[in-house]
Amino acid sequence: MTIRWGLLGCGDIASKRVADAIVADERSELAAACRRTEHLLQAFGERFNIPTLTTSAKELFAREDLDAIYIATPVYRHCAQTIAAAEAGKHVLVEKPMAYSPAECQRMIAACSTSKVILGVAYYRRFYPVVLRLAELIADGTLGRPLSILATTGNSTRFPTEDWRVVKALGGGGPLMDIGSHRLDLFLQLFGRPRHVQATCAPSPEHDTEDMASLLIEFENRCHGMLQCYFGTVDTPDRLEVIGTDGRATTEDLNGGDLTIITAQGRRTESHPPHANLHAPLISDFTDAIVSGRPPTVTGEIGMATNDIMAIAYRESTDNRVR
Fold it and tell me: For residue 113, what are the domain limits?
């Protein structure tokens, strides 16, 4: 069975990885694409040899020769577009963060449930071998009783003021929404549900979003999580570290996959690089979910859990600000 995909949004992430991942997947076909700007759409279609191109999302959703839609548009469009695709009978894989707010996430989940279509969220780092290795080290007791997880990440780009990533009405926030969300999803994957969230966000002098966010999370298992994320930094590491009573495991470059493990037995470094196309395992998993009739690895409920934390973080940051 071949899953016929429509791609809504042909910008940066679609051009870098999503289209290639769909084309390369042996059970997928990139059958259609949609972008509002005609000449950019045509160039994208030629590059990936896409047979059907349209500037209308409504026309894309209405096509009967499509099984699934990948939504790669700015965050503020995710909810309405997911609901419209679901009502048209299409399975939906939506870019992260899932939506502007938890309330929108819930609407998306409800719409896909009512239409009996599968909803997934593009938190592709859940499939990284280095993350799965961290899960093993926690589960098998190598690190002892887990105590904390730490992530520090940044994007060196100095976004122009009109970019949706730094316009609150379009992206919902700054680095916390854009890159911090990925790390929060991993926190949930590795440490489970949170019970308490504290946060502070530093307003940007150039944009109406934060350019730095710091979170402290206490999970239901009493472990702690600490996240720091930034926009516009020159050399921010992409660190993910788990510390337990009997050891720690650290990667300084999450996308690279090298993992240093330190215990009483000594220090060693393992290599667990991700797929050459970071989106490929995500596409493969979602395709298999459709074919097999199972939930995808990253469900709408999982995606909403990260939105829940971010909503609390933004509220906490505002409420705790000294006046």
Answer: 3-124+279-297
